[in-house]
Amino acid sequence: MAEKGESCIFDESCDTDNLFILRKCRKDTTNHFRFFKCGTDITIPESLLILNRAGLGLRLSNFSKHICLKHRQELGLQWTRRKRTCCHPLHDLSKSSKVAKGVNFIQSREIWVKFNLNVSVYVGGACIEKHKDEVQIATDLKGELREICCFLDNSTEREEAGIVTDENLSEIATMNDINQVAMSIDSEAINTESINTELVSDSIYEEGLELAMCVDSEPDMFSSQTTVASNWSKDERSQKDTFNWAMEMMSHGQYLPLKSQASLNLEDLQYSTKMYYIRQARLACEIVCESIAPSQGIELLTQVYQSMKLKTAETKQKDAVTDTIISAYRKAEDYTTKVQILSLIVEKYSKSELLSFIEGLTIYKIDAARKYASTHGPGQYVTPPKITRLRLSKQKIHHFIEFISAPCYLQVVGFGSRHLKLSSGLTVKVPKVIRTMIASRLITAYNNYCKDNSILPPCRATQYKIIKACAASQLKSLHGLDNYISDGMESIDTLKKVVSNLGTKGLQSSKVSDLIQSLDTLKITSQE
To answer: Is the pTM for the entire model greater than 0.70?
Structure first.
């Protein structure tokens, strides 16, 4: 909003409560130009559109002035057309032509520079193309318009950041630029005499001369190719914008602008992003070669590529050191040694070159050698890790065997035996036993026991090996075990009766008593 004492540039009686600084009018005009079919590939700021509609020069002082809400709407995005016929100064007024599309901003400025006549954006007609060749001028208005828009955007951003103010904005234009612009406008006005002056009214011509003689202290930003905006925007324009501007000039608008620049290494980019930059670079090279050699651009680009390829091939020839390394690689028999030797030259040449140098080499070996070089260094010998085995003390072994041989975990069978073969070759006969707990639970119980008594136990793998060496049968759950026991007791009683009958039949009493005692012992063992 405006400060006190300011008024609208178009009418001092306008409401001062709703005043805006003209350069801060930055509404989007894309849809507005699209509606009137007069758009360009350049985004025109709202402030430029208002000054064009009002017929004011594009001077820096005008951008610092104020405009009310009413005039902003009437001359800006809510502007309504009042004329549908062609308003070109060279158009024959006796003929009428149907409007197909409006005059865009570039065409409006061309008419202003050539005839000093303001034609608002869209007040054009269908025959504008017929007059296109008649108003061609040397000044590149499209490039200057892009620079002015870039300058306005940058100055607005700086002002928001507190860098540019109203005072120092008006001091940027130098007197040297003003003199050049005055001479440019004077020459353009004088050149209008060489055009058919019968088609241009005397009032327009006199008005142009008067404007040329009475140049303000600040120039029109479109007056000359060496405008103030052009000088300012050289520092503001980025490298990408400069490249896009140059390619657009060389390709006559056929080159698609570069959207971004690579900020990472090409090897780190995604495949789609890398291919996009490759396509843009190839197209740019084709355009440059076509500009150097018209109609022979592709042939020139091919020869340039061949010369670069030949130069690269010359620099990548094998030397004596490489031949020696390749010879050592071929003589090596161990895979690790081959990878170690190959790591000396794997970073120096590409995969295709290495495959051509060494017969039988594979991509996998090249990748392995590059990994070896990046991890350990090219050709560095890696000492294999030393593996040490710790022997268990006899005390720990005896302690564990004593634990698993406890009566609560191991029961002796009344019959049968096993032969245990020792490492010394000695064979020991041991009774057959049954283990009442599986190995994993037995090891868990031992580890808990050691933990409670602050004893360092062997590892679980060693404990499994010891249990496996101490052979024992595993107790299995039998369904109806009590029935088998009762049947066994009954059989022992039957045998005792048989022995008693044998004693009555003449068997010695001493033998009868020994047999009965043996049967009683067997009965007690079975009950346990």
So the answer is: no
